[in-house]
Specification:
Radius of gyration of chain A: 18 Å
Structural class of chain B: alpha/beta
Distance between the termini of chain B: 49 Å
CATH superfamily of the largest domain in chain A: Winged helix-like DNA-binding domain superfamily/Winged helix DNA-binding domain
Structural class of chain A: mainly alpha
Helix content of chain A: 55-70%
Number of domains of chain A: 2
Strand order of the largest sheet of chain B: 6-7-8-3-9-10
Number of strands of chain A: 2
CATH class of the largest domain in chain A: Mainly Alpha
Oligomer: heterodimer
Number of helices of chain B: 10
Largest sheet of chain A: 2 strands, antiparallel
Order of helices and strands of chain B: EEEHEEHEHHHEHEHEEHEEEHEH
Largest interface: A-B, 18 and 26 residues
CATH topology of the largest domain in chain B: Rossmann fold
Order of helices and strands of chain A: HHHEEHH
CATH architecture of the largest domain in chain B: 3-Layer(aba) Sandwich
CATH topology of the largest domain in chain A: Arc Repressor Mutant, subunit A
CATH architecture of the largest domain in chain A: Orthogonal Bundle
Chain lengths: 129, 299
């Protein structure tokens, strides 16, 4: 399904959370689609099953997936609720990127245009779906 | 599942283990790392019931291990030096295991044959070191153990086989709740498969922690200030290591992420990067903290 970057410093369960979240956010994994079983994913990626379990728990806590006892984990349809912390860190990233762009000579107008075109693209995506 | 409490072992004047306590949960993979001669193999041999500890208790499934057949028939030990009977073939060895281990599964043995792809008629002595090691895993997994004790088990296996063997072990952990304790110097590899880590040094267990907690508790920080470094910067912090490279200060700090960032942010550094440490770095700095460090050899 995906590959982990085994050379990365980021803990494996964090990488798992990020990868699965990416797949959900970009609609590769659709609502109510079943995620691979913990033991299947663990032996496929050769990582500890408890680590996969932990990643699933984290995703469930953050509201990206839900689990049915005895059946497995599924993608949640609704927008996650526990996302303030993540939003804050994304905003910080954005601030850093904008600061660097200005340092490298982009004007405020150019950045604004870029943001507008990104917004149009993302909105267009949801309308067409 | 595995409970070791206050175990000591001496060989003549050498104290190999000094009151070591650890526990391995069911369905968990415990990584045992340590300096050379730290006592890893001694500890694993005690767990396997080969050595009798001088003091302390070693229990598997709440029963003592030493001279206990009912425990031994459910656990498998793969030592760092393999012993093979002269003139035995692979099939002879399988028969030998089948006679000794009641949980032996001939079906599993045959099912794993294509994975290892070793001809059953080969004499074991003619096999290469790596193939003998594969054979040890093949036999070990066919016994369907509840506990696997592995002493530097992946040494000498090629990259493809390492992956296959790890995947097979993980399958048994996930499906059958097998417990594994594994010693290795390949920390990169342990990092992927273990959920618990113990660091052994001179017969003592220095650290024993959930791997993710261990990583969350120690950070590498790169700091740069546009002016001079404030002198009171490091007060009240548990700094394991610090180093200056030009205007950049590199710190290894123990503590919670939020607390450290909060404290350092107050000094308004121009640049602050926080990186998680790899297991290898954690090992080096923890050892350095205990007087076992990399010194500049040519000075």
């Amino acid at each position: 399904m995906f590959e982990l970057d085994l050379r990365s410093r980021a803990p494996i369960y964090e990488q798992l959370v990020e990868k699965i979240k990416d797949l959900i956010v970009n609609n590769v994994l659709k609502a109510d689609e079943q995620l691979p079983a913990v033991r299947v994913l663990a032996s496929e990626l050769t990582v500890n099953p408890n680590t996969v379990q932990k990643a699933y728990r984290e995703l469930e806590y953050r509201g990206y997936i839900y689990s049915l006892p005895g059946k497995g984990s599924f993608v949640k349809a609704a927008v996650p609720e526990n996302n303030t912390a993540r939003l804050q860190s994304l905003e910080k990233d954005l601030e850093r990127i904008i600061a660097e762009m200005i340092f490298l000579g982009r004007s405020a107008q150019q950045i604004d245009n870029l943001v507008q075109s990104c917004l149009v693209k993302s909105k267009g995506g949801t309308v067409n779906d | 599942m595995i409970e070791v409490s206050g175990v000591s072992k001496s060989f003549a004047a050498l104290q190999a283990l000094n009151e070591v306590s650890l526990s391995v949960q069911k369905g968990s993979i415990y990584g045992l790392v340590g300096s050379n001669g730290a006592g890893k193999t001694t500890l694993l041999k005690i767990l396997a019931g080969i050595y009798k500890p001088d003091a302390g208790k070693v229990m598997i499934d709440c029963r003592p291990v030493y001279e206990n057949n009912s425990i031994k028939m459910r656990s498998v030990f793969i030592p760092d030096y393999l012993y093979c009977f002269p003139n035995h073939t692979v099939n002879d060895l399988a028969q030998f295991h089948a006679r000794i281990y009641p949980r032996w599964s001939q079906e599993r043995y045959e099912k794993l044959q294509p994975v290892f792809n070793i001809d059953g008629k080969h004499r074991i002595r003619t096999l290469s070191k790596g193939m003998q090691r594969q054979l040890a895993f093949w036999m070990g997994l066919s016994v369907q153990p509840e506990v696997m004790i592995l002493d530097e088990p992946l040494d000498g296996l090629d990259p493809v086989m390492r992956q296959k063997v790890k995947s097979l072990v993980i399958q048994d952990v996930a499906e059958k709740d097998m417990s594994v304790i594994i010693s290795s110097h390949n920390l990169r590899e342990l990092e992927d498969i273990c959920d618990y880590i113990g660091i052994l040094h001179r017969g003592k267990l220095l650290v024993q922690q959930d791997l993710d907690d261990l990583k969350a508790d120690i950070h590498k920080i790169q700091l740069a200030f546009s002016e001079d470094i404030p002198p009171e910067l490091l007060t009240g912090m548990s700094v394991l290591h610090q180093e200056r490279r030009g205007s950049v200060l590199i710190l290894i700090v123990r503590g919670a992420y939020e607390e450290i960032t909060g404290r350092l942010q107050a000094f308004q550094p121009a640049i602050m990067d926080i990186l998680p440490l790899t297991l290898e770095e954690i090992f080096i700095y923890e050892m350095g903290d205990n007087g076992y460090e990399i010194k500049n050899l040519i000075s």
